From TrEMBL:
Coiled coil: none annotated. Gene3D superfamilies: 2.30.30.140, 2.40.50.90. Pfam families: TUDOR. It comes from Cardiocondyla obscurior. GO terms for cellular component: cytoplasm. This is Tudor domain-containing protein.
Amino acid sequence: METTIRKINLRNLARAEFEVRIIKVETPDTFYVQLKNGADDHEELNEYLQRRMERIGQNKSLFMEQIFVGMEIVTKERGKWYRGIIEEIKEERKIIINLKDIGRRMETEKYNCYELEERFKETPWQANKCSLALIEPRTSRGWTDKDIKTFKYLIEGYKGWIKIKECINEHHAVVELTKAATGLEEAKDVVQEMIKRECGRRAYHTFKPYQFGMLIPEDGRKN
């Protein structure tokens, strides 16, 4: 029987601080982190995956009739091999793959799918979805381009610390985030930095549930 790659269940993590690397940023409501305690295992797996696929990848190519939505596969992007899961099969030989170790989706050709061997399914997916707690957009129009660019500039690719405040589900947490010290820079509270740069305002709730499809106010407005 084939195994399935596990996700890290964020509900099982104690409400302590965890060291992370911020691997992908979309908005303050959606960014992805890799927990440090899984980084070494993933790095070892990734190095082995690169060597293995360079050696035998051509023999692991899948035919178009073999692939299906939800299938865990290996794919190649810009010369590097990634684990992924097929999310959508489109017309004209195109598919959407979720690269769940790096928090990114890609569109590629159907022929760019390769068998994922069982040995590469033992390590959980590495990208953990987070939302920033205790901050909200300055207006009802939502996050501006400036807000998003500033947030990316502050944290994407950096190390930091998260503290889980609330879990939206098993794989999506609302967190406080501190950017780790770098060079001459001291550690920074990311919410304070965003507010100081006029890219958000303090919120006195952990999160607004309707932002994540959980609740719509009776008057239908997003305050």
